[in-house]
Design brief:
With 116 residues, the chain is an alpha+beta fold. It has helices at residues 3-20, 41-51, and strands at 26-34, 61-67, 70-73, 79-80, 98-102, 106-113. The protein has a 3-stranded mixed sheet with strand order 2-1-6, covered by helices on one side. A 3-stranded antiparallel sheet has the order 4-3-5, with no helix packed on it. Bound molecules: zinc ion. Zinc ion binds next to loops.
Length: 116
């Protein structure tokens, strides 16, 4: 399961961000999970309480925003979400020559501070 290593990285990043923004307590951590990463939000939620034990995030809420995969066609610059419906091809010109522009990463979107 690589979800735990993502989680530990996100928690350490959130703590670093909190220090920079002088936030004492983190109430909510918002994480964006791209559709291409294979990371399952279910496991992120499952590992969250373990990963935050003894950190600024203990008792915080985890919010996950799922980011759909988006591709930009290299031939006509159309942006689309590749799926079975369009056969993973550009819906405008039918090209398979696309570059993934969103949905590749797991990132810390923001932290929301406050008192418990
Ligand atoms: Zn195209």
């Amino acid at each position: 399961m690589h979800e735990m290593s993502y989680m530990l990285r996100l928690v350490s990043l959130a703590q670093q961000t909190a220090r920079e923004q002088q936030i004492d307590t983190i109430k909510t951590m918002v994480v964006e999970v791209g559709g291409m990463t294979g990371v399952l939000p279910y496991y992120l939620h499952k590992y969250f309480p373990t990963a935050v034990k003894g950190t600024l995030l203990e008792g915080a809420t985890l919010e996950i925003i799922e980011i759909p995969v988006r591709t930009r066609c290299e031939d006509c610059a159309t942006e689309y979400e590749p799926d079975k419906g369009n056969g993973y091809c550009c819906p405008h010109c039918g090209s398979k020559n696309g570059t993934v522009i969103a949905g590749r990463d797991v990132t810390l979107s923001k932290i929301i501070g406050g008192s418990l």
